[in-house]
Each structure stands twice: as C-alpha cells, then as structure tokens.
Design brief:
By secondary structure, this protein is an alpha/beta fold. The protein contains 9 helices and 10 strands. Helix content is about 40%, strand content about 20%. The two termini are about 35 Å apart.
Length: about 250
Amino acid sequence: MFKICTKKYDHIFFSPHLDDVTLSCGGLITKLHKAKILVVTIFSGIDEGKTSNFGKQFIFLSGFNNARDFIESRKSEEKRVARFLGYDFLFLNYPDAIFRYKKNIFLRQFLYPKDCCCKLSLYDIPLIGKLNEHTRELLKKYLRKNGKIYFPLGIGRHVDHQITNQLGTQINNAELYFYEDFPYCINQKWEKSSRYYFIPKKIYLSKPIIFKKYQAINYYKSQIHPVFNTKNNLRVIFFDYYQNCYENYWYLKK
C-alpha cells in the first residue's frame, strides 16, 4: 500500500492518479530533492474491478485486458518514478472514476459511463466527505510544522481531479499551493473560482531539471499511448510547453 521512510515531511503532494503529480510537479520535486517529500495518490484502487465500457477502452489503450493488471502495472511505474525522483509514496486505493458505480442489487449503473471529464455525480458526495476526513488525518500525521501542501487546480474537469481539488480548498492553517494539471492545461483554461484568492507563482527550473522531469514521465509507459498517442508526440508537446523552463503554481490565501 505504501512506502514511508520518515515520520514528517516538508512537502506533501496530493495526486488524483498514479502519474499526475509527476506530470505536473516533476520539476519542482526534482528541485526539492534534498527535502523530505511525500506523494499521496488518492484514486489508485479498483474496488471490485467492475469497469464501465469507457473504462475498458482506456485499460485496453493502456495495454491491458483487465483492471487488476492495469492498476498493478501503474503502481509499479509510480514506484520506479519515486525512486528516480527521490520521494516517498502512499497509495490510498480509493477506486478510480472508471470503476465507481451505484451499488444496486438489480442494476449496476456506472457513475461515469461515457467520460470522466464532466460534472461530478451526486453519488460521489459521500466519498468526498470520507476523503476530507482521511486527508486531515494524513496531514496531522505526516506534515511537519510549516510544511507545504499541493493539490491540483482541476483543469480539464476530470472528476477525480475535481474531487482532489475540493479536498485542498477545505484545508485550513497550512501553506497551501495548487498546481496546474498537465497536459490538460495545454489546451484548456482554468475556471478560477471567485470564492478563493489565489496568488500565482512561477517556479523556474534549470534545463537539466526539465529534462529529468521528461525522463520521469517516460517511466509511465502504460500512459504514453492513451494520453499522448506516441512517444514523439509526448516529446514535442512536453518541450514546447516547458520551453521557458518553469512550472505554474497558485498559493491559496485565506
């Protein structure tokens, strides 16, 4: 389930899936290599393994025929990246959106049968409440005093990213940052909420750090085809977007 080497961390990153933090924050994590870093992946489970047709297509594009092989391979990829970039990891094993459904005796109705980039289902509200409590417990246990926390902005409206974003907005009394969701942020704008005051912050990175982030992303072999289509597309998209050598973050001031 997890690998934790220290009791308290300087930086805790919350990732919806087994790749999102590296895709979005791999440069900053590399820059902070001397700090104690924990990456918490929330939706890293399959529940009972029952999968929507949309989910089956995604699993097939990732190179697998069943949910269990799919998620175990993705966990292995994440572990390799953790060793490469030097962070500890924690898998919470809540079921990914493609596995969540209304648990009815007579009919199995998936919450997101056609697309995961959409409006949140009301049936996910109890899950959000459970995750809010779980998140607070983790921070109390693992975040050192004056440590920093990172959540996604939810660009692209993937439901798991939306939920993880909501968890961040509920945190108080912490130095809280939000990262842009790569690669969704390439073509989609962030729908900034008027409820919160965000302060933009650019984290400038050296070219070797940017290249190491690119190398780390390539460890997620199962996701290159479904997300970028080809390795060449990944290379072109990545270096075009990060040609100015910085990642964007937003500090949430409350």
